[in-house]
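Exam prep: given the inputs below (a chain plus pyridoxal-5'-phosphate), describe the expected output before reading on.
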Amino acid sequence: MTEKKAQPSDFDWNDLGFEYHDLPYRYRAYYKAGQWNAGGLETSSTLPVHEAATGLHYGQNIFEGLKAYRRKDGGVNLFRPDMNAARIQRSADRLLMAEFPQEQFVEALKEVVKANQDFVPPYGTGATLYLRPFEIGNGPVVGVHPADEYVFEVYATPVGAYYKGGLTPTAYVTNSYDRAAHGGTGQAKAGGNYAASMLPGKEAHEAGYSDVVYLDPRLHENIEELGSANFFGITKDGRFLTPKSPSILPSVTKYSLLALAEEMGLQPEETTISINDLDQFAEAGAMGTAAVISPVGSITHNGKKHVFYSETEVGPWTQKLYDRLTAIQNGDEPGPEGWVVDVPLK
Ligand SMILES: Cc1ncc(COP(=O)(O)O)c(C=O)c1O
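Solution:
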């Protein structure tokens, strides 16, 4: 397979999408005979995967997603990488995969950013370097049981600002699909959850919606997630509510916004949110690494459309939360202790 590596001069930093680009370096580590090796940078974007790997056949395949942000002073920040390090270990536990050490995880992120530092987009463009850590089961396994060998990798690709001009509300729709079962793998960032979400997502897009509102898999009554983002609603009496459920992904952005909402005087709460109780909300949004905060203009359920703050304009709380979160990530404002991690570039 030929690999044409990207050059920094290939990019218009103000006009980037969410696409893969083959950067010069990625980090890889290998697990064999019960331990991880030291790992290191590699140049090839093609992985050595055994034809009988559990990562190919039985879904032993987990990942993470986070970003590196260029600061005004030229430095680069990671945002709460310890949360991703912990989450991929919990995903590994659920799928009986080898846990990758948390310190080595953060070091791997730093190495990849440093080695590809010319691809971290400039401050002020809203673009970032997206980091994709992942782990797969490898080696020959025919029966359904966990692999003895694993590969862990972190690759990077520059991605554009989600919003090119202001926060734009989008429309969501419920349907009858589930992305994860009660007691299943919804809390893990497991590849299979995303395979399960592709058909519902396609049908929602074809019907003109930006994505699906997943309802809880037992009752189909309570809000779970919005595509691949968590949901929040801000009530008319100043509460910041987000669903509590065993089948949703514990989002780093969600836990960050729960803290920032409280800082701003909102009352944060993880709780059950019925799809039939949307009238309580003055504003609603989706939150996640890719979308940051995305205002939800409307949710259509059983053919009936519920509009939140506005279908065309972002609400004041949503805008305030977005501004505060991105100011911390970009290093413009200090955030809570330990949220921002500097990447040494020399
Ligand atoms: C299903 C799902 N929910 C929520 C999120 C948001 O999580 P985070 O804020 O950690 O990116 C993601 C993205 O990672 C996701 O894939």
